[in-house]
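Researcher: Let's do a round of design. I'm pasting the structure tokens now; please hold your answer until I've finished.
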């Protein structure tokens, strides 16, 4: 694949991921889509429904986790050029989300439906806050590297790739994984909670906790004592609103 085509692929992968992730939020919250997590009638019994939906969540979690492991990347880059490895990962994640939403089995039932307007407004504000935190945190590290655009662009320009150094931007002084905090807010804050929403949000939350565990292990391996000290002073997901001690060099 030529460098220009590689860049076009990276851009397409990025757009597909934005669309699929936006679709997931709408799917969870039963908004504007003909088929959402909480709509439809039960078909085939609860056992079959739980098995299929659990399998769909597991498929997404396994894809996301296995492809992120260094051992898999070393083998994967024998087939996929290194400058497209991240874009291929982003594409696979998008397809896993699309499959999850497309084959999701209806789980009818409403757990709560808040109609009191002040409470609804608070939920909407928290949802907006979660979106801002999730997006902002990607720019505090390197948004374009995270989604594979930087790698493809550098290759297109004939420039060598350089790893993005660990940075401790504003949000990272309060919580070690602000993007995951933002995603949890997007998953859980709602004035209208259905059984399907609850089940999917629970599965994705479990995946986040497992994924963070492995990410922390990798960070400890690469950053060593600096990251260990950072862990001691900064919560993993829920902030204490007390600044962490800066890491050396930051």
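Researcher: That's everything. Go ahead.
Model: Designed sequence:
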């Amino acid at each position: 694949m030529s460098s220009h085509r590689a860049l076009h692929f990276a851009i397409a992968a990025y757009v597909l991921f934005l669309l699929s992730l936006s679709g997931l939020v709408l799917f969870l919250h039963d908004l504007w889509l003909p088929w959402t997590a909480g709509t439809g009638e039960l078909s085939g019994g609860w056992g079959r429904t739980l098995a299929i939906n659990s399998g769909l969540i597991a498929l997404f979690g396994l894809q996301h986790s296995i492809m992120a492991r260094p051992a898999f990347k070393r083998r994967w880059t024998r087939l996929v050029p290194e400058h497209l490895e991240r874009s291929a990962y982003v594409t696979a994640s998008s397809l896993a989300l699309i499959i999850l939403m497309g084959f999701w089995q209806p789980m009818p039932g409403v757990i709560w439906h808040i109609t009191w307007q002040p409470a609804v407004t608070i939920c909407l504000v928290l949802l907006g806050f979660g979106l801002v935190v999730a997006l902002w945190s990607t720019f505090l590290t390197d948004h374009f590297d995270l989604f594979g655009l930087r790698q493809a662009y550098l290759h297109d320009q004939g420039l060598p790739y350089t790893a993005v150094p660990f940075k401790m931007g504003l949000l990272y002084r309060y919580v070690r994984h602000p993007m995951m905090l933002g995603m949890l807010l997007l998953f859980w804050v709602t004035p209208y909670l259905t059984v399907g929403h609850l089940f999917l949000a629970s599965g994705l939350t479990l995946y986040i906790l497992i994924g963070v565990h492995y990410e922390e292990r990798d960070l400890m391996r690469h950053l060593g004592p600096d990251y260990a000290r950072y862990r001691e002073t900064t919560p993993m997901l829920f902030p204490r609103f007390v600044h962490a001690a800066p890491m050396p060099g930051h």
